Model the fold of this input.
Amino acid sequence: MLGNLSTVRALVWTDYRLALLFAIFIPLTLLIWSWIAKSEAISLGMTIYWRVASLMAITVYLMIGGLSIGFITALLAKVLIPLSLWFWADINEEIREQPKKSLHLGFTAWRWAMSVYCALGALVQIWFIRCAFSSDLLGGETCQAWMEPALAFKSYVHSGLTPGFLAFWGIVGLVIYATYLGYFLLVKLGRQGRSALNQ
Done:
């Protein structure tokens, strides 16, 4: 079923539309809302989310350049994002203790919805992870379908720039991301554990 090109295209475009909703518009609203409401825990949680979710933006630029590593970063993003949403013990505790107001309920609902979206998305990405190691990436239509939304984004936002130039910046972003993630795992995690509020 997932080998059918029209089915894959529909799946890919649905995934990108859901990503716009769950990964950009709703979290941006929640971040601004948390600033206005002066909710330190939710504000910090959303800031951490945006740092981790930047891997999705990096993936788009890698896909624009037709780089197969984009299939790996897409899967990693779907794994790391829900981890970042639930990992911090002090943020979770403070949010549980907050009054059940609109912001709290909105954040909680989005966190669960985002986790479900990422889990389902990760299962789909695993199915297509072969595209990252395929020698016929540029000729494989089902693999190419995953690059169509990224190329559409390029035509709207970066129409004057070449795919190679944008892919270069995607690689730069990935190196910076990997460096920061490595520093967090090897240094910061051992120092602060699962505490995010008192860094």
User: Anything to note?
Assistant: The longest helix spans residues 5-37. The chain has a mean pLDDT of 90.
